[in-house]
Specification:
366 residues, mainly alpha, 15 helices, 0% strand, transmembrane helix, PUP_plant, Probable purine permease, transmembrane
Length: 366
């Protein structure tokens, strides 16, 4: 957070000026933040577990696993049309051209599709717990991208968090007991590891680019704009994934995949449907937190979710939780705590500065 930025917990004042729906008191703003946090944590944990369940039960299509991560975007159309601002309020602000918006959403959508594909490959060759722990590196990547793209300060605490999270991922990489869910080879495990790290880096870049888009291109942050970005980028990503599904020839095997699914055809369809729904719930939380707070805070909460997922995987899939994984998870939590504390210090400093400015203004007016 730079010196001229608002404190994180003072965003409600900005929101009040932007849309009638968000004329919020402080407790209402906190409720909005809490709802987005719940959507992100619950959605991401459920989506990762369902994705692992799809592979465990006989699913093999990486492109289908990629497609369902964005195919549920029509669900968002209902709140989008309900929360659209009136023509008068939308006409009062200058909007970017259709060509600019189309280019922005196309580029972001293609990046989302590529990111989802990398995640799908990673989840194919890694257990849900290992996958989630490696994904925690996204916070370290976000610190770097936020520094270059969003003017985020690189403090000692953030550097400490980056180092700790990097060590956490390195422990997983060199752990001799690390293996895929079905005892996959070391080569495939390494491929899964590299794809997951690459996906984490690309995901962090996406969050920073979204925040930059709100600041420099869209130049307004209402919830309808947040949903619009999510819908159109998901539409592009779904189109790219559909092309990949047909171009790769994987679509030919989907019927046999459904017939051979261990828990039955109905379970196969429900798994894909609920995976699509939970990813959209997660996406609303992610983009909502970028809108209400920042890409940094959104990624911090996403990392917290990744610390919860290994515990859920331990219960649902009976994943092995050896000493190295436990240490890696504890390191990830330490890195998360370091980041949260830095957020707290930034907010406290910004509040103090804002109070001083207000007092000086009051004194000069008397």
């Amino acid at each position: 957070m730079t010196d001229n930025q608002e404190p994180i917990l003072n965003k409600d004042e900005t929101l009040m000026d932007q849309t009638p729906f968000l004329k919020l008191k402080r407790w209402q703003w906190w409720l909005l933040v809490a709802m987005n946090i719940f959507f992100l944590i619950a959605g991401q944990a459920a989506a990762v577990l369902l994705g692992r369940f799809y592979y465990d039960q006989g699913g093999k299509s990486k492109w289908m696993a990629t497609l369902v991560q964005t195919a549920g975007f029509p669900i968002l159309c209902f709140p989008f049309f309900l929360l659209r601002p009136s023509r008068e309020s939308s006409a009062s602000t200058t909007s970017p051209s259709i060509k600019t918006l189309a280019l922005l959403y196309f580029v972001l959508g293609v990046l989302v599709a590529g990111d989802n594909m990398l995640y799908s490959v990673g989840l194919l060759y890694l257990s849900a717990s290992t996958y989630s722990l490696i994904c925690a590196t996204q916070l370290a990547f976000n610190a770097v991208f936020s520094f270059f793209l969003n003017s985020q300060k690189f403090t000692a605490l953030i550097l400490n968090s980056v180092v700790i999270l990097s060590l956490s991922a390195a422990l997983i990489a060199v752990n001799d007991d690390s293996e895929g869910p079905s005892g996959v080879s070391k080569g495939k495990f390494l491929l899964g590891f590299l794809c997951t790290v690459g996906a984490s880096a690309l995901y962090s870049l996406l969050l920073s680019l979204m925040q930059l888009s709100f600041q420099k291109v869209l130049k307004k942050e209402t919830f309808s704009v947040v949903l619009e970005m999510q819908i159109y980028t998901s539409l592009v990503a779904s189109c790219v994934s559909t092309v990949g599904l047909f171009a790769s020839g994987e679509w030919k095997t989907l019927h046999h995949e459904m017939e051979d699914f261990n828990s039955g055809r109905v379970s196969y369809v429900l798994t894909l449907v609920w995976t699509a729904v939970t990813w959209q719930v997660c996406a609303v939380g992610v983009v909502g937190l970028i809108f209400v707070v920042s890409s940094l805070f959104s990624n911090v909460i996403s990392t917290l979710s990744l610390a919860v997922t290994p515990l859920a995987a331990l219960v649902v899939f009976h994943d092995k939780m050896n000493g190295v994984k436990v240490i890696a998870m504890l390191l990830a939590l330490c890195g998360f705590a370091s980041y949260i504390y830095q957020n707290y210090l930034d907010d406290k400093k910004a509040r103090r500065s804002q109070t001083d400015v207000q007092e000086n203004h009051d004194n000069s007016s008397h």
